[in-house]
């Protein structure tokens, strides 16, 4: 996905993170991936959280909703910084 236009965007990074969760990767490892892959992760966190909250609210697939909620929760609590 990295070679596509969307692969380099926040949405692309979130899609990869959600795929990792769907494949039973540990949530902390997924957050570590996002932190290393999104250069301004702490600054981007509010937008990333809004995006996964939107995905969770709009998807009709329960498994996607579940991983979006998990990703939102761990992103909110990542690195002990409150939003």
What's the overall geometry? globular
- Termini gap: 29 Å
Q: Could you say which structural class the secondary elements and strand pairing correspond to?
A: mainly alpha
User: Helical stretch count?
Assistant: 4
Largest sheet geometry: none
* H/E series: HHHH
Radius of gyration equals 12 Å
Number of strands: 0
Please bin the fraction of helical residues.
55-70%
Number of domains: 1
Low-confidence stretches: none
**Overall pLDDT confidence:** 90
Strand content: under 5%
Give a structural overview.
The longest helix has 18 residues, at 41-58. The relative contact order is 0.17. This protein has helices at 10-22, 27-37, 41-58, 62-77. The protein is an all-alpha fold. The model has no long low-confidence stretch (mean pLDDT 90). The radius of gyration is 12 Å and the shape is globular. It is built from 4 helices and no strands.
Quick summary:
The chain has 83 residues and is mainly alpha-helical. It is 70% helix and 0% strand.
Keywords:
mainly alpha
Question: Can you lay out the helices and strands and say which pair or pack?
Answer:
Blueprint: H1 10-22, H2 27-37, H3 41-58, H4 62-77
Helix pairs in contact: 1-2, 1-4, 2-4, 3-4
């Amino acid at each position: 996905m990295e070679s596509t236009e969307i692969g380099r965007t926040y949405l692309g990074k979130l899609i990869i993170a959600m795929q990792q969760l769907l494949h039973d990767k540990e949530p902390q490892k997924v957050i570590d991936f996002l932190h290393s892959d999104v250069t301004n992760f702490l600054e981007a966190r509010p937008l990333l959280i809004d995006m996964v909250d939107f995905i969770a609210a709009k998807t009709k697939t329960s498994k996607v909703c579940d991983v979006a909620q998990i990703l939102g929760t761990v992103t909110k609590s990542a690195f002990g910084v409150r939003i």
